[in-house]
Amino acid sequence: FPSRSLAPFHKSNEILTNHPDQREPHTRIMAIAVRIGVFIALALSVCNGLTQQKFQTRRELFKTVVATSTTCLVVASSMPSRAITGSSDGNLPDLPPEAVRSYLQYRIPLQTSADFYLFELQELLKDPSDWGTVGELFQTLNNRGQGNPSRIEREFTNTMRIIGLSMPPETAEDMRDAQFAFEKSMAKISKATAGVRRDLPVEIDKSAIPIAMDGWNEGRIALNSFFVSLNSATGLNEMKTLPATSANQLREYGRSRQRYIELKKKIKLCQNRGGPALSQAWGQLMVSGYMQDSCGIPDLDDYFYQ
Q1: What contacts 194, CB < 8 A, 6 or more positions away?
Q2: 124 vs 102: CA distance, rounded Å
Q3: What pTM value is reported for the model?
Q4: Which of 49, 108, 263, 277 has the fewest Cβ atoms within 10 Å of its own Cβ atom?
């Protein structure tokens, strides 16, 4: 991901709560039930009509089937694939308002960061020739020598801190412990991969590889602990935990690596408009969701609900 890779995921609370599906649960359920009923009734009517109608030629039958299929597709496309979580769902009404806002705003970027952690960082650590890229994740200085949060801080620890501070004390304590454990694991990776730069051959101690992978696994456990606490607090169980390294890891995770790669490419293409000087401006526009259509970025709610 580029440095502003999570910008499009940080939607404002105003946009989230004004979403057409942000209605009372019973209202959304009734609306979905009505649409399903209409679709079933239409399908039965079409099938009954086709069986009773007599056609003179195959062309007439073909035209009728195409027309009715198109109608069914239009109706089906209007049916929501999933109701989007709102402030009245799960345990959110029982949480402080700031906790609700933080959860709705940061759940998508945090899960996408977890995608990066599993799909990319794990593979980068396995190959020491990629450790130059890993080292850049921990850099705190920009091209002008000014201090900035590292990518790990922006996309993981800062987000975890914001959500944790907004939660009730008993939940906040568990989240803080998970955050500190994650920071400790990242320090372990940073130390193991230190000194390696892109396109600069360096002899690497073979013992550093298992140390780096141990740091990754400890970070995975810490993230899972944070997600479990978050799911318990919200009562929604939306955050997907990261399975341990195994042959079935990707299947157990249940999220698409291909969709992640496509999303990453779209975001990078959008941020590159106008070069590095304008990348931050594009990022700010994407915060509000305005850039999704013009940049071709997929619907982020749809990406989240895999």
Answers
A1: 135
A2: 30
A3: 0.70
A4: 277
